From TrEMBL, chain A:
Listed name of the protein: BN860_06194g1_1
Domain of life assignment: Eukaryota
The species this protein was found in: Zygosaccharomyces bailii (strain CLIB 213 / ATCC 58445 / CBS 680 / BCRC 21525 / NBRC 1098 / NCYC 1416 / NRRL Y-2227)
GO biological process, alphabetically ordered: tRNA methylation
The WD repeat ranges on this chain: 175-216, 217-258
Keyword match Iron: no
SMART domains assigned to the protein according to its UniProt record, in alphabetical order: WD40
Length: 982, 263
């Protein structure tokens, strides 16, 4: 078993000589942070994780982690794939390591507040400590100030910081003020200031000489893990359990919070470093993400103009109540209109406002739209007037104009504009009247001449209030309030539009985008203000062909929080969402789950427009009647060096095995963090990429299984079980949508669906059987019908009162069985043959047979029906470290099963066995256990023989799936391994 | 280890409230006793309860050693000392000390309580604040156990019992091996009141029997590792890291509540 790829806790990060070095599990990874390329991955320790790395000016690197340390030439770190031969172990946990002043030796600080000094050959030169202070440290650092001054900064568990002089072994300061454990403490360059962070959520600044607390920085909302000084000690950067990284200014010995960046998915953010030259920071955490942050505050590129300033510059006098009503951004700058119909231009090059024209038609009410890449701006009012201006792309001067009145409508309440994306030279304007009997009007214009080319009077659906547009071929897609979408056909205006109501729970549809065309499906992405987004697959070709439209939701999901105002697709295919959350406007990479930017704008209730610019994004908004331009540049640097995976334990892994996807396999992971990720493994490299993070569950996941090439099921607490449909035949990416959820019977939030099993019955092409087992000992059997998309409850019973852990469905001869495992160590089988056929709810049958194989909970179960079809073998692993093979034989005469334990290894692991998987051919069994050892057993002849065991650096090892010779192992992290013996 | 809302729904939590225990942990000790009967020994006199706050183990000990029915003679030389970082509200017949058990000075304070006598039982339910840095959490837990063990070897009588909370993560087999040098029997016990989904379990070490040639010597300036240096218990050198699996024992009868179940 060889590790192909690994994703999981990154405990430290460091910039050095143009590269980023990170302790990634037992490896050091070296990245070129300008390109994002992983230059090398080198194994440093056999089993321990790399907790820290430091470099000398003489070309050496020093790594440490747990009780291991390793000193090596830096060059080798970037070249070799393993340097475990350099690993040395000492008797105590190492908290920090540093080279000495002359770089001819190094110091290790251990958790017993002792420093071991070594020469470069690894000889222990000296042990130093201060007398009587041997209690355990959580954190600490060594500060080499000069050849004769080196401080040890020790953070104790009881709230105090002890600073001692390494060479004189005397206490310099005992800094008291924090409450709770100190998680990090470090010093500035000349060793005069100390900064620390703790359990108590504060960052503190101390003066060493006077031993006084200079300032306390509050802001983080949870424990703070790490921090350091930068920019000549004028700044501090800190990372916390609140998933943020914050910048603090050190001014006049006071701490001032300057910036907040949301950087990680889960609370364990361990590493932070800053590159002062490039002004970038990097953070790392349990989610395995390496996040780069540009430290230039976004507000630097924000401009504000008050009405007074605009008035002065444009030499216009504004009325008392006059405000800015609408605007649109172009390459040259902005076109805006006031409530008195004054059209103004802001030239971005010159930074000046100019008056353009005034039109009384657009006083009090106007709507402004624009086509950025054609430099056209369109104003409309509620009296059916339109003003279209074509502008010079360089300076924004008017080069053409078109004014018109629309007679078809009595009044207009909304106007929208869209450029046709397949017919070159035209754009469309839609107009909607408040009168429900008026048509929904669409005008087609020539983009060069601004001439009206066609008018389409579409039948307006009832209860329709347009909010966004997309045009594709001869179809116009219009979003509306109440999460409604209508599709109009330009080739058949008489035809009733196709209307989809309540795509999502119900707020206004905020955007529609054409995404791709594959396998007779036109895929559109639809966003909704309530935070939901949907992808719909519609076969528009069929409309042309026979007038019918096949259309279905193929993907749906909800953003993590806030209002969703729209989406953008990046060239990489990543989905970027944007909108408001409380006082902020956010831009978020939804595919990779990280924030691109967020800025304080005061919240959702204001005039605003967000658009893409050649070099990034721009948000224009009005706040207190001033206009703000916030430009968000797209960094030349990658935003992450590695995206990582779940930040918390992965409880289940399931691979779609029937069919390859691209050059590998699709698989899903279900985590304690309440999300399911749909991912891809590349077969050759083991590289993992994430397509989607599904947020439907509200509590930590128990199970997730891909049951065939179309469906996936997941379960969790609150009695949640969801059936998901996976679409794998589109070109760009797979899609997943919630098909159905299992009915809920009780309101106890703690009731967990611990496991489920599915059986496709040959005689039933329309559905499948589903067995579910619960934490309150309930067992239920359901039949799912595809046509109705419904679960019917067939059997409802209860085992005892203990928690059930696993379930399997299988048949022997023509008999159907449910097998369960429980926390009392029993394997129990029910014969459900006669009960699953009827349509009505039947009472649960008595136990067919039961056998106690383990002392307590059986956490792992895999079964195989033997070739004869008369018996089944169950493989079980438990809390009691045991692994067993139990055989159940069907007795022809009594029609009952007789169980028999074939083999049982009491000490199969040194702690709970969490999963087991039988390999193809049924000769071998893989197990994972909490002792972090992966074991492969031969089970030939029903004997358990250990063939191979391998330590994994994944803590809380709990899940496993196998396809061909690829193993995917999950826990706090994810590893892909290759199983050579097969 | 804060009380989450999950704890409050827990049956053991309710049962603890009913029976006047300060924490559901009381049942862990009671269930360990159901299997090992260390509290039923009439010779049990002196007990140290390490990491004892809020004090439910001490309550169990107090009720066992000082039953209301007992006459004065019987209980005369019985004694319970409880130690924790946190302060504890008083419990009848229990002497509480607020101290860090990893601190060498703490031992002196405990010894002072006992005078020249030795303890019959030392138990420790200690758990550090969990950070989420798995290997550090497991290491700190191990250090807590080793500190408890360090105190134990200085106060425990030959043949005495040591009980401590463990996390059954990686390297737990190292701890088992070390304890094997000092006790006749080492068992890994999991009470049914301890959630199956947690790494928590307890080592029950019976028959204290240190190597004959080893004299524990406590010095404020030696670390735990050094303390055990001469005893085989601390074979820290990787070359000699021996691993062993202690037999597993589920405790509490099968009809006791299942802490993983929803009721
Ligand atoms: C699970 S609680 C003990 C519950 C207790 N057995 C009861 O039944 O009420 C764990 C305790 O360990 C204590 N602890 C952790 N580290 C300690 C240390 N170094 N010294 C003393 N107590 C410590 C904590 O303060 C906490 O009260």
């Amino acid at each position: 078993m060889e590790v192909l790829s690994h994703y999981g806790p990154a405990l430290c990060v460091k910039f050095f000589n143009g590269y980023v070095y990170t302790g990634y599990g037992p490896f050091i990874q070296v990245y070129d942070y300008h390109t994002g390329d992983l230059k090398n991955q080198c194994r440093i320790f056999e089993t321990n994780k790399v907790h820290g790395v430091t470099f000398s000016n003489s070309g050496m690197a020093l790594c440490y982690g747990s009780k291991s340390t390793s000193l090596m030439p830096l060059g080798e770190l970037s070249k070799r794939s393993s340097l475990v031969e350099y690993e040395r172990r000492i008797g105590e946990w190492i908290i920090s390591a540093e080279f000495n002043y002359d770089n001819n030796g190094f110091f290790l600080l251990t958790c017993y507040n002792r420093v071991l000094s070594f020469d470069l050959l690894g000889n222990l030169i000296r042990k130093s400590a201060v007398y009587g202070e041997k209690s355990l440290l959580y954190s600490g650092s060594i500060k080499v100030v000069s050849s004769c001054k080196t401080y040890v900064n020790a953070g104790t568990v009881m709230g105090g910081i002890i600073i001692w002089d390494l060479f004189s072994e005397s206490i310099v300061a005992n800094l008291l003020g924090h409450s709770g454990s100190i998680f990090y403490v470090t010093m500035n360059n000349d060793g005069t200031l100390v900064t620390s962070c703790s359990d108590d959520r504060s960052v503190r600044l101390w003066d060493l000489k006077s031993q006084t607390e200079l300032s306390v920085g509050w802001g983080h909302t949870a424990r703070i893990w790490n921090l350091l000084f930068f920019n000549n000690d004028s700044r501090i950067i800190s990372v916390s359990e609140d998933c943020t990284c914050r910048i603090w200014a050190v001014e006049d010995n006071k701490l001032l919070q300057m910036a907040i960046y949301e950087v990680h998915l889960s609370k364990n953010v361990w590493g932070v470093d800053v590159n002062e030259q490039d002004q970038i920071a990097i953070t790392s955490g349990n989610d395995g993400r390496l996040k780069l942050i540009e430290l230039q505050p976004i507000s630097d590129s924000q401009q504000v103009f008050t009405l007074q300033e605009i008035s002065t510059q444009s030499c216009m006098i504004f009325g008392k109540e006059e405000i800015i009503k609408g605007f649109h951004w172009f390459a040259f700058g902005l076109i805006a209109i006031t409530s008195m119909g004054k059209v103004l231009k802001f030239d971005d090059n010159e930074g000046r406002w100019e008056f353009v024209l005034q039109s009384d038609l657009f006083t009090s009410y106007s709507v402004t739209n624009g086509i950025t890449n054609a430099n056209i701006v369109i104003f409309s009012n509620n009296k059916c007037d339109l003003l279209i201006l074509k502008l010079d792309p360089c300076n924004g001067r008017i080069i053409d104009r078109q004014e018109m009145h629309i007679n078809e409508l009595s009044k207009t309440q909304n106007c929208m504009v869209c450029r046709h994306n397949s017919i070159q030279d035209c754009f469309l304007i839609t107009l909607e009247s408040p009168n429900p009997h008026d048509p929904f009007l669409c005008l087609k214009f020539d983009i060069n001449t601004l001439q009206l080319e066609n008018k389409y009077s579409f039948i307006k659906p009832v209860n329709f209030s347009s909010s966004c547009l997309e045009v594709y071929d001869s179809f116009l897609l219009v979003g509306s309030r109440f999460s409604t979408l209508a599709i109009f056909n330009f080739n058949n205006v008489e035809q009733e539009p196709y209307v989809f109501r309540r795509l999502t729970p119900g707020d206004t549809t905020t955007s529609i985008h054409f995404v791709e065309y594959s396998q007779n499906k036109h895929v559109f992405a639809v966003t909704n203000r309530d935070g939901y987004y949907t992808f719909i697959g519609a076969n528009l070709d069929s409309v042309e062909f026979n007038g019918s439209l096949k259309c279905e939701v193929i993907h749906d999901n909800k953003i993590s929080r806030g209002f969703l105002e729209g989406a953008i697709f990046e060239d990489s295919g990543d989905l970027i969402t944007f909108g408001f959350k409380s006082e902020l406007f956010y831009i978020y990479n939804e595919s990779q789950c990280y924030e691109i930017a967020s800025l304080v704008c005061g919240g959702a209730h204001r005039q605003w427009k967000f658009s893409r610019t050649p070099d990034g994004f721009i948000l224009i908004y009005i706040r207190a009647s001033s206009i703000y331009f916030a430009k968000i540049g797209v960094s030349a640097l990658p935003r992450t060096l590695r995206c990582g995976t779940h930040g918390r334990e992965i409880r289940d892994i399931s691979i779609l095995k029937d069919r390859k996807y691209k050059n590998g396999y699709l698989f899903c992971t279900a985590s304690e963090d309440t999300t399911i990720k749909l991912c891809h493994i590349e077969e050759a490299t083991g590289n993992i990429s994430t397509f989607w993070t599904l947020r439907k569950h509200v509590s930590g996941l128990q199970r997730c299984k891909i049951i065939n090439d179309k469906f996936m099921i997941s379960s969790s607490a609150r009695e949640e079980l969801f059936l998901w449909q996976i679409t794998t035949d589109c070109n760009s990416k797979p899609y997943v949508t919630l098909r159905q959820s299992l009915p809920i019977f009780c309101d106890n939030p703690d009731l967990r669906i611990m496991d489920f099993a599915v059986k496709f019955v040959e005689t039933d092409a329309q559905g499948f059987l589903l067995a579910t087992v619960y934490s309150d000992s309930a067992i239920k059997l359901w039949r799912y019908n595809h046509q109705e998309s419904k679960f019917h409850l067939l059997l409802d019973g209860r085992y005892e009162s203990c928690c059930l852990l696993n379930v399997s469905l299988f048949s022997l001869d023509d008999q159907l069985y449910i097998m369960i495992t429980a926390t009392n160590g029993c394997l129990v089988v029910y014969n459900i043959t006669d009960l699953s056929n009827g349509g009505d709810l039947a009472p649960f049958p008595d136990v067919d047979c039961s056998i106690r194989t383990h002392q307590s909970g059986i956490h792992a179960l895999d079964i195989a029906v033997d070739n004869t079809g008369h018996s089944v073998t169950a493989y079980t692993g438990g809390d009691d470290n045991g692994l067993g093979i139990c055989y159940f034989h069907l007795d022809k005469f009594t029609n009952r099963l007789t169980p028999k334990i074939k083999d049982f290894q009491r000490n199969a692991a040194s702690s709970t066995i969490t999963s087991c998987k039988l390999l193809e051919g049924r000769e071998q069994l893989l197990t994972t256990s909490v002792d972090q050892v992966l074991r492969r057993w031969s089970v030939a002849g029903d004997k358990l023989v250990l063939e191979e065991q391998r330590y994994t650096s994944i803590a809380d090892t709990g899940s496993l799936d196998v396809v061909e010779n690829l193993l995917v192992v999950g826990g706090v992290g994810l590893s892909v391994m290759k199983n050579e013996h097969h | 280890m804060g009380k989450s809302s999950k704890d409050k729904r827990d049956l053991y939590y309710r049962k603890a409230k009913e029976q006047g225990y300060r924490a559901r942990s009381a049942f862990k000790l009671l269930q360990l006793n159901e299997e090992f009967h260390f509290l039923d020994d009439p010779e049990l006199k002196r007990v140290v309860d390490l990491c004892a706050a809020p004090g439910s183990w001490s309550q169990v000990l107090s009720r066992k050693l000082f039953p209301e029915s007992a006459d004065q003679n019987e209980i005369e030389d019985r004694q319970i000392v409880a130690v924790d970082l946190q302060s504890m509200s008083p419990i009848d017949h229990v002497t509480t000390i607020q101290a860090d058990i990893t601190h060498p000075k703490t031992l002196q304070r405990i010894m002072e309580q006992f005078g020249n006598h030795q303890a019959d039982l030392v138990c420790s339910d200690g758990a550090p604040d969990v950070t989420g840095l798995h290997d550090l959490d497991e290491y700190v837990q191990q250090q807590l156990i080793m500190s408890a063990l360090q105190l134990t070897v200085c106060v425990l009588k030959k043949g005495g019992i040591f009980i401590a909370k463990i996390f059954r993560g990686r390297d737990i087999d190292l701890i088992y091996a070390q304890l094997g040098y000092l006790f006749d029997h080492v068992t890994c016990a999991k009470p049914r009141s301890s959630r199956g989904s947690s790494l928590e379990a307890f080592i029950v070490c019976q028959g204290y029997n240190p190597p004959l040639d080893w004299q524990p010597r406590l010095d404020a300036n030696t670390s735990v590792a050094e303390f055990f240096q001469d005893c085989h218990a601390a074979s820290y050198d990787v070359a000699h890291e021996s691993r062993q699996i202690a037999p597993f024992m589920a405790c509490g009868s099968l009809d006791s509540f299942d802490s993983d179940a929803t009721y």
